[in-house]
Amino acid sequence: MKHGTLTKDNHAALWHGRFKEGPDAAAVEFETSIYVDERMAEDDIRGSIAHAKMLGNTGIISQADSSKIVKGLESISKDLKSGKLSIDYSAEDIHSFIEATLTDRIGEPGKKVHTGRSRNDQIALDERLYLKRVIPELQGKLLKLIDILCDIASKNLDTLIPGFTHMQHAQPVTLAHHLCAWAWSLVRDNERLTDALKRIDLSPLGSGALAGSGLPLDREAVAKELGFSGVTPNSLDSVSDRDYCIEFTSCFSLIQMHLSRFSEEIVLWATTEFNFIELSEKWSTGSSIMPQKKNPDFAELIRGRTGKVYGQLTNLLTMMKGLPLSYDRDMQEDKEPLFNAFDTVSSCLNVFTYMIESAKWNKSVMEQGCEGGYLNATDVADYLVRKGLPFRTAHGVSAKAVRIAIENNCKLEDLCVEEFKMCSELIDEDIYDYITPRACVEVRSTTGGPSSKKVKQQIMMLKKIVNSCTKKSAGKK
Fold first, then answer.
1. What is the pLDDT of residue 22?
2. pLDDT, position 269
3. What is the CB neighbour count within 10 angstroms for residue 208?
4. Which residues contact 384 (CB under 8 A, 6 or more apart)?
5. What are the backbone angles phi and psi of residue 46, rounded to the nearest 5°?
6. Residue 443 exposure: Cα atoms within 13 Å on the Cβ side
7. Fewest beta carbons less than 10 Å away: which of 4, 124, 202, 439?
8. Is 116 left (phi over 0), alpha (psi -120 to 50) or beta?
9. Residue 444 contacts residue 434 (beta carbons within 8 Å)
10. Cα(131)–Cα(338) distance, rounded to whole angstroms?
């Protein structure tokens, strides 16, 4: 960290007029946020263009100055995208850099771009514009993963797999049913993001530092220009909260939690003991000492990075918990956790999608897993319920049959009718039609159940959701 005062060759801070001395270089280095907020350059320029147009249309500044400002900002945007213009990291933040660059290019009119606004409402606007721009991209990745899971499920409607509770064999289901369970959790993640987008669809620009403006600003015109549905109703609230950053990071945490759970199952299923799935060599790694190893490192990294996203959420909650209204400089620290959480979830979604799409499923091994562990015990009880026995009594009968099978070191379906009749005289030869793994699955035809018919319905519903959301997204562009 270098000490000394900021030289006149650097971009002056927007607030420098109050001070006789320039800020210490170490102070500037400590407070600068441009390394973080530079990703919002496009959004800052969009907001400034809309603001400049409004200033001209309302007569607060001349139309000629407004036009110069707009053209200057458009040239900055074009040059940033082409690489002709590079960001000057000696600037305090992205707003300072763009305003200083604008003034360098068009002279005195550039100094009018900040008329009627504060960095407080400017940053609140930029963050909302940024989120409105990138969240649909993240949703697109969610929808792509849901679609791929549906495709894999469609090919595995009849692929049996043991279902677990407490990590113990519970009841047989199908791989398709299991993958649909993953997909439905992602659907909810997508819905949460959509709901959160609704709450940021109001423009805060014109709220000023906290008390609005004495100038005749047309907030509604700016909001319409930028594609917002309206304006925020209270100037103090507009600049003093970051609940939307917290809400989106909470959404990111839930997405990451789901990806972590899926990855945990992938890690287990890729073990020699399970051997349900074989990951592509493109999405596996080896060992520096053990030549035979094929490690599910990418699933493990997704699982491991979940703590980072949770940490960003805790960061934001802790930052905001003690702040009085309105703006406090603590809130400058909102962007890094928000952006980091977004970046982590976005990359993990990409990797998980590629990993699962390229994997191979060991169907025979999964089906063999349904033959042990007495996964059909509940179906013995259900068989008896159909014959009029109360379920609690039928449960005890099935448990007795399981004990006999354990003692004989065999499967339930390997017991002879006489052994079954030792448990209940209601059991006949037809018991065997009900307790094969496939019969256990197909009989479960209630809505949401694992029967092939019901899973097909789920896949159709999921595909319909994906198509509907994709069309809506395309229509907004």
1. 65
2. 97
3. 23
4. 393, 394, 397, 398, 424, 426, 427
5. -60, -45
6. 17
7. 4
8. left
9. no
10. 10
Most distant pair of Cα atoms in the chain: their distance: 101
Is-contact 263 352, C-beta < 8 A?
A: yes
* Sequence-ordered alpha helix ranges (H) in 61-174: 63-82, 94-106, 119-154
Q: Closest Cα partner for 115 from 61, 67, 34, 184?
A: 61
- Tokens in use for 146? 């849901």
What are the residue numbers of the active site?
166, 287
pLDDT recorded at residue 6: 41
Expressed in percent and rounded to 5, the helix, strand and coil fractions of the chain are 65, 5, 30
Reported as type and span, the H/E element at residue 163 is strand 160-165
Q: Which of 473, 377, 390 is nearest to 426 (CA)?
A: 390
Q: DSSP for 122-135, please give it.
A: HHHHHHHHHHHHHH
CB burial of residue 259 (10 Å; 0-12, 13-18, 19+): buried
Residue 339's H or E segment, with its range, is: helix 335-357
Rounded Cα distance, 318 and 93, in Å = 23
Considering only CA atoms, give the Rg of the chain.
Answer: 30
Q: What is the pLDDT of residue 25?
A: 74
Which of 186, 203, 206, 205 lies closest to 194 in space, CA to CA?
Answer: 186
Q: Which residues of 46-55 are buried (b: 16+ CB within 10 A; e: fewer)?
A: bbbbbbbbbb
Q: Are strands 277-278 and 360-361 parallel, antiparallel or unpaired?
A: antiparallel
Lookup: tokens for 150? 């549906």
Contacts of 144 (CB under 8 A, 6+ apart): 353
Q: pLDDT at position 9, please? A: 43
Q: What is the mean pLDDT of each run of 10 residues along the chain (477 residues)?
A: 39 57 75 93 98 98 98 98 96 96 98 97 98 98 98 98 96 98 98 98 98 98 98 98 98 98 97 96 89 92 98 98 94 97 98 97 96 93 96 97 96 95 96 96 97 98 96 79
AA identity, residue 415: L
Give the C-alpha separation, 116 to 206, whole Å: 7
- Pairwise CA distance, residues 66 & 56, whole Å: 5
Task: Scan for tokens 């004989």, then name that residue.
Answer: 408
DSSP three-state, residue 422 = coil
Closest by CA position to 4, among listed 19, 18, 23: 23
Burial 149-162 (b: 16+ CB within 10 A, else e): bbebbeebbebbbb
The CA-CA-CA angle for residues 375, 380, 381, to 5°, reads 110
